[in-house]
């Protein structure tokens, strides 16, 4: 199982990550589609080849082809949106917020899966990419759809752990290559 491979690859100093990885994926209360879509979108957003290579096959096995594609779409569209909206927010000139974005985002309106699932995946990717405006937007849509805070927090817990695992494994690989 890829999850066990990732856990065993983590160094001893990252014992908490091993425990958290097993917990957020192995013991999640999320439905399988929400869980594995979140895992896949976060693995892509983590930019860690090792994490993506290990988690993608299991995600693909647990998702319908439509959900698999939608989770990848969430990672792709949020990679663009998070940079754009975070930058607009961080600029001191508020006039940028009045300008038309002019970016294609059709997948958000028609993701091919339940809107709540896509929004959850988008929120998790936004957590990794650090876009407060996107986090607020997706959280509000989810809350209006009746999603509770525990479920929303579960998505960004997955994001936090997947990102941390990727960072740690990539750092260890870089250190080993230099060592």
Automatic annotation (TrEMBL):
InterPro entries documented for this protein: AhpD, AhpD-like, AhpD_core, CMD-like
The species this protein was found in: Streptomyces sparsogenes DSM 40356
EC class of the enzyme, as a word: oxidoreductase
Subunit structure: Homotrimer.
General function of this protein: Antioxidant protein with alkyl hydroperoxidase activity. Required for the reduction of the AhpC active site cysteine residues and for the regeneration of the AhpC enzyme activity.
Pfam families given in the database record: CMD
A molecular-function term among this protein's GO annotations: peroxiredoxin activity
SUPFAM superfamilies reported for this sequence: AhpD-like (SSF69118)
High-level lineage: Bacteria, Bacillati, Actinomycetota, Actinomycetes, Kitasatosporales
EC numbers, comma separated: 1.11.1.28
Annotated protein name in UniProt: Alkyl hydroperoxide reductase AhpD
Catalytic activity: N(6)-[(R)-dihydrolipoyl]-L-lysyl-[lipoyl-carrier protein] + a hydroperoxide = N(6)-[(R)-lipoyl]-L-lysyl-[lipoyl-carrier protein] + an alcohol + H2O
